[in-house]
Amino acid sequence: MQKLANYIDGKLTPAASGGWLEDFEPATGKAYARIPDSHKTDMDNAVAAAQRAFPAWSATSAAKRGEWLHKLAALVERDLEKLARAESVDTGKPIALARSLDIPRAVANLRYFAAAASQFASESHAMESGAINYTLRSPLGVVGCISPWNLPLYLLTWKLAPALAAGNCVVAKPSELTPMTAYLLSELCMEAGFPAGVLNVVQGLGPKAGVLLVEHPDVKAISFTGGTKTGADIAGRAAPKFKKLSLELGGKNPTLVFSDCDFERTVSESMRAAFSNQGEICLCGSRILIERGLYARFRDEFVARAKMLSPGDPLEEITAQGAVISEAHLQKVLGYIELAKKEGGKILCGGRRARLDGRCSGGWFMEPAVIENLPYDCRTNQEEIFGPVVTLIPFDTEDEAVAWANGTPYGLAASLWSRDVSRCHRLAAQLEAGLIWVNCWMLRDLRVPMGGMKQSGTGREGGWEAMRFFTEARNVCIKY
Ligand code: NDP
Fold first, then answer.
1. Which of 25, 309, 319, 349 gives a 20 to 30 Å CA spacing to 212?
2. Which CATH fold would you assign to the domain 2-249+456-479?
């Protein structure tokens, strides 16, 4: 069994305690690697290494920092196939998805912020009273990046690239469920000759290593992506220490379908929005609100396509639906199917554990589920399921659609399908979501603000938002 290591002070090291955790392959249900069960000594060592590296790294020119990130991006791109396979094995996602989305996006994140390092500029405000303000922006110091299991390398690089570009040193804590590509990235940092301590990766459990990172007195900011409950815990620990916090949390995103939509595109993109990555993307559209006149036609077509989406071995090229992340998560998702039935929902297809033959016979697979006949305010339609489960809800008026779309504690993303341009603009301004897609889904421009409202988080990532988050503003006012 492969043994992974932490990456601390430029070196690969096991946990100081000698403890290990098992890393499972969701498609087989078997442990295939071991990761360090990191604790206080490891976290203290990582933060100390980052602190030692900070003076030189923050004094390195922005252009040079960009060059380092470009160097890393080139290595990730060179190893795209290896990393895609590793991500597929570690998460259960189809290899075709890892190859087309996860790893290319990690490369794009590194390249985008490599360029941003030298493009970032600060503001100046002239006053009529004969004074001028300018804002100095300096890196914070050591920052913590905590990322989830659904898009491991994609979201890890989305955080560490702007942090490093802005001149900070990073301690990253990937999900203990998906440590592999963070480990492989550590190896690539060593190959690139990254200065020791600039980036450190501490593997281990969230409630142990993650909490230590959040509470560490020398860590100035935490950039976190994960569940809302964990976000609340982190906020509770970080707030009394006045750390900067960026929280990208869960979602229960609506897809709004109007009768005048482009039917074919709407069905195929709603399918993608519902079931991509087994529904394990925070931006997935898990509640589809459909104008009543189109409801029956949409439902029948959608269900017919969902029935064809049967899970397969993630490592096979044709697989479009892989395994979910863990047995515990599979049971949680199946529990929501039972809840939906109790709440009066009609299961139109799927919703059962899927059993595969051969190498994947012990894997954590589920048939994609489509459910109807549930009110917008029942638990199934309010709580984040984060699996291959979607509900269909007919609506009669635009006002009803908006009220139901907004009627959850979350506010991350929404997609809207209509050919009526006025309606699209009108609704876009009313939907309570940080990201609104009109006639598309998950079309991402790395410059735009990314994040949610309400219980989907605070702060925004992406573009200058990320560069501002990872810097401290110091205003200078000069009277002349
Ligand atoms: P978790 O909140 O369980 O975990 C996220 C990360 O935090 C993991 O690295 C985890 O480590 C760590 N962690 C867990 N507990 C603590 C703690 N008390 N203190 C510090 N760190 C901790 O989320 P999941 O990994 O289950 O990811 C799924 C969730 O992420 C979903 O709710 C999804 O919506 C959300 N998400 C949000 C996105 C957004 O941009 N808004 C994007 C992608 C996902 P470990 O795994 O080892 O426990």
1. 25
2. Aldehyde Dehydrogenase; Chain A, domain 1 (3.40.605)
